[in-house]
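Protein folding task:
====================
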Amino acid sequence: MLLLTAALMTVTLQMYHQVRRGVSQLTGRLDDNRLAQEVLQKIAEDLDRLAAPGFDATVRFGNKYDNGLNSAQLTLENKYYGKGAPPKAELYDRVVWQTMYDSFAQSLILYRMHDGLNLEDKVVETGSDVSPSAGLYIPVAEGLTHFQIQSQQGETMGAVWTADTLPTAVLIGVSFAPPEELADGRVGVPDEKILYRTVAIDRTRFIPYQFIKRALDTSKIEDSDPNSADPNDAAVSTKTGR
C-alpha cells in the first residue's frame, strides 16, 4: 500500500512539474511577444514624430552581424533653420536606436539615445539648458536575438540607408526567440519567430492613385427586370447550364 501511494505521488509530482514548465514557457513567450510589440510601437512613434513634414529630417540605418546575431543602428534627426544670412541648420531632435552584444547573456541589449533641443520630458526638464539624459544610451530591453532595420521602396528592400532623402517606409524586425539552425545551415532566428512592423514615413505625403478600369463579366448575370439597365437590379443566376 505504501509503495503504491509513493508511486502515485511520484507520478503526480512529475505531471505537476511538467505542467509548471509548460506554463512557464508559454508565459515567457507571451511576455517576449508583448515586449517586442512595445519596442516596435516606441520606434514607430519616434519615426512618426521626427520624420515629420516641415523639418529637415533624415533617417539613417545600417545592419551587421554581432556574434552571429543580427544587430542594427537607426538614427533619426530633424533640424531647424535659425536667424542669419544664410540661415544655419541647427539640430532640433535626434534619436538613436541600436543594439550591442552582451557576452554574459549571449544576446543583444537594445539602447535608445535622445538629444537635441526638444526635451524628452518638458515638465520635469523645463528650466534646464541640457536634458539630464541627453547623449546617454539608455538600455530599453535585454535578451534580444534579432534586431533588423530595412528600407522599403516598392518591392525593393535595403539593409542600409544613408541618403538625404527619406525612404518610403521602414521595416523593423525584433525577436527574443533563441537562435537555431536554419535551413541554409546558418544559426539564427527563423523568420516566423520574428515580429515585424512596417512604418510609413511621412504619412501625410501625397500618394498618387490610378484607377484601372475593368470590364464587367455579364455572362453569368441574369436581369431580374429585362427592361432595367441598372446593374444593381441584376442577380447572379444559380441555374445550371447557363
